[in-house]
Amino acid sequence: MSAKKDAAVNAITIKPISLTDLWNSTVAWISVHSVQILIAVGAGVLIYLALAAFREFGKRLVRKSDHMSFGVLAGRAIAKTTHFFMVMVSARLVAGYANPPDTVLTTVKFLFTVAAVFQAAIWAREIIIGFIERRTGDDGHSETLANAMGIIRILVSVALFAIATVVVLDNLGVNVSGLVAGLGIGGIAIGLAAQGIFSDLFAALSIIFDKPFRQGEIITYDTTTARVERIGLKSTRLRAMTGEKKVMSNANLLQKEITSLQSLSRRRVKFMLGVIYQTPQETAEAIPAILKEVVEANGMIFVQAGLVTFGASSLDYEMDFDVPDPDKNDFFMTRHKVGLAVLKRFNEEKIEFAYPTQMSFTAAPDGRAIMPYPEREDEPKGKA
Question: C or N terminus of the chain, fewer CB within 10 Å?
């Protein structure tokens, strides 16, 4: 007898609500609680208007500034509040006041859950996208950023709305374990199949967000010096200083040691020069001061100069100076200009540059150095 009673209870529990029962119970409820319903509707309208005003406040925050501040970020999320969510919030807050039938209250609760879950997904998407845009800022490659943001928005939307769908189905009593497992396995399969594409994509996002270099900068990697022309989602295009166009995958480029030559406040120039051994000692001592005058006269920053070694046929000097603001000053032409100025000043000071020379000495059988040619008859004896 007890088993039959339990079966009957279970049958009543899982019996679906028919539209006829819902309609009849709703009509009977309206006829009995009309006054409470009118009051609840009025309160719901006021709540809806308050939410709509809050939504307009979010839109004003967005229009207030172009900079992606936290206020603008919050305003973007608030402005994405849907009318369906506002209606269901209003209905949920006043639903219990008029003592609605269970079928009506259950329907309101279910619709409110759906609206709240998907609205939370929309807010989360706007906040995540806003934080990413705030992190990138004005990066100088808006086309690449726009393409990347389109892909990011799709990925974030799919992930968040998939989670929202699972939550809604779980609230309906659906067993979502198999669905979650299927989504996980499918994501792993897609990730493995598109591993190379995602590797370059994430490398492009790393370049955009971390900014190791920007479009227009001159960089050096391996033995190549090139200017960055375009940063794409899969590859970066560079123009070598020798004129060739180079295309490298983003993942491969980030694996290399990259030196930026354009983000420096100053760039060091190293000059090597040699003078002849016959240079007077006083002149040799004055050469560093002369080099300093030449460098500073051309608007560069003198660092140091001095004798570094005794060469095979020259006294070797080394000079270092810095080119300030390499973005505005042409490094190559600055080095050329200073080199010509050094040449002009050395000519004025009668300082001779050294070049490879070789001297031959002739020795007598006893080892004495002798003239390599016969002495002239009119030349005094003993003069070497």
Answer: N
Q: Rounded CA gap, 312 and 222, in Å?
A: 34
CB atoms within 10 A of CB 234: 15
**Neighbour-count burial for 17-28, b at 16+ CB within 10 Å, e otherwise:** eeeeeeeebeee
Reported as half-sphere exposure (CB side, CA atoms, 13 A), residue 363 has a value of 4
CB within 8 Å of 207: residues ≥ 6 apart: 213, 231, 236, 250, 254
Strands (E), 62-195: none
pLDDT digits (tens, 9 = 90+) for 208-257: 777 777 777 888 888 888 888 888 777 888 888 778 888 888 888 888 88
Q: What is the DSSP letter of 32?
A: H
3-class state of residue 262 by DSSP: coil
**Cβ neighbours around 316 below 10 Å, total:** 15
Instruction: Give per-residue pLDDT as tens, 175-190.
Output: 767 666 666 676 666 6
Give the DSSP letter of residue 353: B
Read off the pLDDT of residues 22-31 as tens digits, 9 standing for 90 and up: 677 777 767 7
Whole-number Å distance between alpha carbons of 133 and 130: 5
Domain range 211-260, CATH class = mainly beta
255 secondary structure, DSSP code: T
Distances from the Cα of 309 to the Cα of 37, 174, 277, angstroms: 101, 85, 12
- What's the pLDDT band for 205 if we cut at 50, 70, 90? confident
- For residue 8, how far is the Cα from the chain centroid? 64
3-state secondary structure of 15: coil
Buried b (16+ CB within 10 A) or exposed e, 153-176: eeebeebbeebbbbbbeeeeeeeb
DSSP alpha helix (H) spans, 175-280: 177-193, 195-210, 250-254
Confidence of residue 293 (pLDDT cuts 50, 70, 90): very high
Give the residue extent of every domain in the chain. Answer: 16-197, 211-260, 266-348
Longest dimension (CA), the chain: 154
Quickly state the pLDDT bin for 4 (edges 50, 70, 90).
very low
What is this structure's pTM? 0.50
Q: Are 295 and 321 in contact (CB under 8 A)?
A: yes
Backbone angles phi, psi at 86, to 5 degrees: -65, -40
Task: For residue 349, give the 3-state DSSP assignment.
Answer: coil
Give the pLDDT score at 12.
39
